[in-house]
Amino acid sequence: MRGIFGANGPGLPAGVRVVAGVWLVLLAGGAILGTACGGGGGSATTEEAAQGLVQFRRTCAVCHGQNAEGMPRLGKNLHNNAFVAGQTDEALVQFLIEGRPATHPDNTRGVDMPPKGGNPALTNENLQQIVVYLRSIQ
Question: How far is Cα 88 from Cα 74, in angstroms, rounded to an integer?
Fold first, then answer.
């Protein structure tokens, strides 16, 4: 008597079995490489970026948009942003601490960026998390 999968196992054509096997090898290889290269879920950087997004939305989104896409006549789009990309993490944290007045020569929007985005409760850790988030969208 034949089982539900027939005499030779599942009734899948040989080509489908080969493709499925290749996919399994690729998936396993990707998982191994991701782990070996420090990737994988739950990394500190991923968690920091997620916390940075929360802090960004609480403070910066009013001018820069919920997803840092920028707002007309307010904050610039921060995705692939040359200013962000050209600064060290420490310089970006300092920039967030100080803000930028509307009168600053590099302020092209003519709107104040208040120190700490107008939220004095932000800690240096919060600001570092925002920087990690900004790095993740570059």
Answer: 24
Quick check: helix, strand or coil at residue 13? coil
Give yes or no for a contact between 130 and 60, defined as CB atoms under 8 angstroms apart.
yes
DSSP 39: -
Q: Which amino acid is at 41?
A: G
**pTM exceeding 0.90:** no
The backbone torsions φ and ψ at residue 46, rounded to the nearest 5 degrees and listed phi first, read -65, -45
State which amino acid sits at residue 100: R
Q: Phi then psi for 113, rounded to 5 degrees?
A: -105, 105
- Taking the C-alpha atoms of residue 8 and residue 127, their distance in angstroms, rounded to an integer, is 61
100 forms beta bridges with 113
pLDDT tens per residue, range 3-57: 444 555 555 455 444 444 444 334 344 333 343 344 444 577 899 999 999 999 9
d(CA 54, CA 59): 9
> Looking at beta carbons, which pairs linking 81-87 to residues 24 or more positions away fall under 8 Å?
81/134, 81/138, 84/134, 84/135, 84/138, 85/138
- Confidence band (pLDDT; 50, 70, 90) for 82? very high
